[in-house]
Backbone:
């Protein structure tokens, strides 16, 4: 007989089985229903029943089989999207023998979902039952290889289908692949026979172009021209460009040039020529010449893009004259003719500025700002519009509305370039409204988020002036030390000198105060009025022929626009006076700044006119290739072609047309040769040669199979030059491997796109295969810094903790490890911070590291260990300041641990050592408190005074240990 407990367990198991049997039976029955329906050929009902089974039994024993059947039935109906997850599930759940029949369906479904690599994986090891199945396998593989850019293998798959079983689609695809691969003889044979079977005009066009391209490469030029005739009759652009290449190969360059320009006429060059003198006058800030030139241009071109540009230039000149109504009329008339959303937004912002700043019409300004918000094509511009709205509302006396607008900007577009400006304006509003505490918080966020930038300088000066207004001159020292590391303009330098003078006065250092004030007074500027006066003085100097004096005056201008205008006039004066080389150098310098198009135009004109035709043509070519040069690019292209046509003949002019060059039916072998050349040069350490070869490859084959390799190599070279903008441009759309993502993450961080940098680096760190350990560590560090700058404290702490735990301690990594530890300490991650500081302390016998380690242990709630660490700094450090501070902390910790007499002894020593100083006074005060009546027995001494009781905090010899440093190898 069974023991009672075991009998109970057996009965319970039996009852559970009885309860489960109906469910198991139901599942088996439903499975057999679906199975029988399929065997009977009732496929539609089988599909419905199968779907019901899958819904009813998410953990059913036969779920894999039913998923395969339902997936197959859906695939047969062409519902590939619905079939794919079921086929994937079946393929994963069935034994290899049973799932073999699903391979074709699964591969087809994955292919339709844009997953060609997985489609090929599904067919790996598949054994087709018959020839038809093999044909389908080859078709799927061919399509997958095509999507992966592996055209050679795609063609091999199609060639594996016997010619008698190839469909018309197979033949057409094989023919075009042969042409693309440069197998031109085979392509011509296949395409000749396939043209008649093309099913629609687009297919016919594609085949004609492929056939003509192959004939061109085979040098069968007459046949190629004959093939193109149907498309040439309809003025097909691509066909005409191919015709031009054929004519060029036959030596008929004049006909080729006429053909290209007949289909692609260079529009707008005459209007651009009329605008040049107006633009030149605008750069010189000659308002009268701009307004007169614009009127003349509008008489000839009353509508369209040229008219809009003329009106915009006229509006700018009217604004210089403070003629607001006339400027508004010009802007309103120009706006309807603008088609570019970017330019529409900029014009609307300019109109809003004039409406308020010049005309003082707030309603009109609001209407233009709403228009700007409506047409703004990007988040960056929308943020700029919100900044303008916030400024307008503040200047109108609506501070609450302004604060709401600016706060919305910062929240909605945290990565926008104008966020520092919004923060600074927000801080100024808080100061005006009598809320210095709120202003200080905002300014501190700018100081922390944008170290070393112009925004940092502006925030630091504003914070310093706020501290002075509150009577807190004593706090100016650290701020002035930070400002000393940042470039300042003359006005900012004057403000800094004034703050330094006030600090010196506060400290009783009269000589230093006198020196600082002497520096600040003579260079105090009067803003825009002073710049205008200097500009007029420079114009007068040019009128008197004193070009060098005018250039020196330009250096004194704080407004970069006025400075460029005076330099531009100086370059024109130098050129007119025969000093062409000096003028060219000045125009080249202006072209590097904000006046690139017009400066290049003037430079090219002077070079062409004064014995330097080759540099002149090169300058024209550069101007013609600029994306944002507007009408000047068109005019430069026209002048370039006409000059080449006259001087070097039709072939040179033809080769100057970018669309013609890009249309050459290139032999794929050239791509492989370029790649080979680049790789050989890279292996032989000829980095410059490899760079040129890769650049040439990308120019000729931008979507080629080696494009990613070329972009990565060029990105590496750009990173070596610290050209992070170029790295971003190269990798933004193609950072697929770990190294590319690492470079892109660095570029985004160093160009202050912190949110994007964090996202890129976190993707990389989730799968860092191929990166060296030191690169992974650097990625963790950069991710932490990006998250920190982006305000994501949690992510910053996680990445900096990972970095701090893995990065080897060295002189190079010391500052970054210290910064990581201090940030973690500030975030309450005491264990992680302590581990980093302990590792640092084992290598560097640095008092500040030892102190921070002790302070972290104290914050962590480990007073015994903290006291030991403080005492090591206090008695073993060669740094007297940190040693002194550590003694104060040690004394307070002794109290918290109940060691009152030890604390009294330590304070007696401190009082004797620092007698007559602030620290000595503090020590004597604490000693008096401690030598008074003892607390009742058992009474708690409380937590460490420095942590919980600010009034009992001893004066530190160094800044607060909570404040992280900002120096480090990866600080941009």
Residues:
């Amino acid at each position: 007989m069974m023991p009672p407990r075991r009998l109970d367990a057996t009965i319970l198991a039996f009852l559970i089985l009885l309860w489960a049997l109906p469910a198991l039976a139901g599942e088996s029955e439903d499975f057999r229903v679906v199975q029988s329906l399929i065997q009977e050929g009732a496929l539609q009902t089988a599909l419905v029943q199968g779907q019901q089974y899958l819904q009813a039994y998410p953990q059913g024993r036969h779920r894999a089989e039913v998923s395969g059947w339902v997936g197959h039935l859906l695939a047969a109906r062409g519902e590939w999207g619905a079939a794919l997850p079921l086929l994937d599930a079946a393929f994963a759940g069935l034994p290899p023998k049973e799932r073999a029949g699903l391979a074709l369906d699964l591969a087809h479904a994955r292919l339709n979902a844009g997953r060609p690599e997985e489609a090929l994986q599904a067919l790996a090891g598949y054994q087709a039952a018959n020839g038809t199945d093999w044909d389908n396998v080859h078709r799927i593989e061919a399509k997958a290889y095509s999507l992966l850019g592996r055209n050679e293998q795609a063609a091999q798959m199609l060639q594996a289908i016997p010619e008698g079983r190839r469909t018309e689609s197979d033949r057409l695809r094989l023919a075009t692949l042969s042409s693309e691969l440069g197998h031109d003889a085979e392509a011509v044979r296949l395409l000749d026979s396939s043209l008649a079977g093309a099913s629609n005009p687009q297919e016919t066009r594609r085949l004609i172009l492929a056939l003509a391209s192959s004939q061109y490469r085979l040098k069968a030029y007459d046949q190629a021209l004959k093939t193109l005739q149907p498309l040439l009759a309809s003025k097909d652009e691509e066909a005409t460009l191919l015709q031009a290449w054929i004519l060029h190969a036959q030596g008929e360059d004049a006909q080729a040039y006429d053909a290209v320009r007949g289909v692609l006429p260079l529009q707008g060059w005459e209007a651009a020529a009329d605008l040049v003198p107006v633009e030149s006058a605008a750069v010189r800030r000659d308002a009268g010449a701009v307004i007169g030139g614009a009127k003349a241009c509008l008489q000839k071109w009353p509508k369209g893009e040229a008219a809009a540009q003329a009106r915009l230039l006229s509006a700018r000149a009217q604004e210089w004259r403070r003629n607001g109504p006339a400027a508004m009329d010009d802007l309103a008339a120009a706006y309807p003719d603008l088609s570019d959303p970017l330019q529409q937004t900029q014009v609307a912002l300019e109109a809003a500025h004039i409406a308020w700043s010049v005309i003082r019409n707030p309603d009109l300004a609001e209407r233009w700002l709403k228009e700007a918000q409506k047409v703004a094509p990007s988040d960056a511009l929308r943020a700029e519009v919100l900044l303008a709205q916030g400024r307008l509302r503040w200047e109108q006396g609506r501070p609450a509305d302004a604060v709401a607008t600016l706060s919305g900007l910062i929240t909605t577009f945290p990565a926008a370039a104008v966020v520092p400006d919004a923060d600074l304006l927000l801080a100024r509003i808080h100061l005006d409204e009598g809320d210095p505490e709120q202003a200080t918080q905002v300014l501190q966020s700018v100081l922390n988020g944008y170290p070393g930038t112009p925004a940092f300088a502006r925030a630091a000066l504003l914070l310093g002036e706020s501290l002075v207004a509150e009577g807190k001159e004593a706090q100016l020292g650290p701020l002035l030390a930070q400002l000393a590391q940042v470039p300042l303009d003359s006005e900012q330098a004057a403000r800094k000198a004034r703050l330094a003078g006030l600090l010196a006065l506060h400290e009783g250092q009269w000589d230093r105060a006198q020196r600082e004030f002497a520096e600040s007074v003579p260079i105090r500027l009067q803003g825009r009025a002073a710049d205008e006066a200097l500009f007029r003085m420079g114009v007068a100097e040019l009128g008197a022929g004193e070009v060098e004096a005018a250039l020196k005056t330009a250096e004194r201008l704080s407004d970069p626009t006025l400075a460029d205008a005076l330099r531009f006039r100086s370059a024109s004066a130098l050129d007119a006076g025969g000093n062409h080389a000096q003028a060219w150098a000045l125009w080249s310098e202006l072209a590097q700044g904000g006046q690139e198009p017009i400066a290049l135009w003037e430079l090219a004109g002077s070079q062409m006119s004064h014995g330097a035709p080759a540099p002149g043509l090169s300058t024209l070519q550069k101007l013609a290739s600029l994306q944002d040069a507007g009408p000047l690019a068109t005019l430069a292209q026209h002048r370039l072609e006409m000059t080449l046509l006259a001087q070097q003949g039709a072939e040179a002019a033809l080769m100057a047309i970018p669309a013609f060059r890009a249309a050459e039916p290139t032999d794929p072998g050239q791509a492989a040769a370029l790649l080979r050349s680049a790789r050989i040069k890279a292996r032989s350490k000829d980095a410059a040669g490899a760079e040129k070869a890769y650049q040439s490859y990308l120019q000729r084959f931008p979507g080629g199979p080696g494009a990613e390799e070329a972009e990565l190599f060029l990105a590496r070279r750009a990173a070596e030059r610290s050209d992070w903008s170029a790295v971003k441009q190269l990798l933004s759309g193609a950072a697929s491997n770990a190294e590319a993502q690492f470079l892109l993450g660095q570029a985004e961080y160093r160009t202050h796109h912190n949110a994007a940098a964090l996202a890129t680096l976190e993707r990389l760190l989730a799968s860092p295969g191929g990166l060296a350990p030191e690169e992974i560590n650097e990625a963790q560090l950069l991710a932490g810094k990006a998250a920190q700058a982006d305000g994501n404290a949690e992510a910053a702490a996680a990445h900096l903790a990972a970095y701090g735990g893995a990065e080897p301690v060295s002189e190079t990594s010391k500052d970054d490890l210290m910064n990581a530890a201090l940030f973690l300490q500030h975030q309450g991650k005491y264990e992680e911070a302590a581990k980093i500081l302990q590792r640092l302390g084992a290598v560097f016998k640095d008092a500040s590291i030892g102190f921070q380690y002790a302070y972290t242990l104290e914050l962590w709630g480990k007073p015994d260990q903290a006291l030991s660490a403080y005492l090591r700094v206090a008695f073993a450090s060669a740094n007297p300041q940190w040693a002194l501070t550590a003694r104060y902390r040690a004394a307070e910790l002794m109290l918290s641990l109940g060691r009152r007499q030890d604390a009294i002894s330590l304070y007696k020593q401190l009082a004797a050592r620092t007698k007559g100083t602030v620290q000595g006074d503090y020590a004597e005060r604490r000693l008096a408190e401690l030598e008074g009546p003892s607390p009742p027995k058992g009474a708690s001494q409380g937590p460490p005074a420095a942590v919980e009781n600010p009034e009992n905090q001893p004066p530190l010899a160094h800044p607060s240990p909570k404040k992280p440093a900002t120096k480090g190898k990866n600080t941009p």
User: Anything to note?
Assistant: DSSP finds 54 helices and no strands in the chain. The CA atoms of residues 547 and 667 lie 55 Å apart.
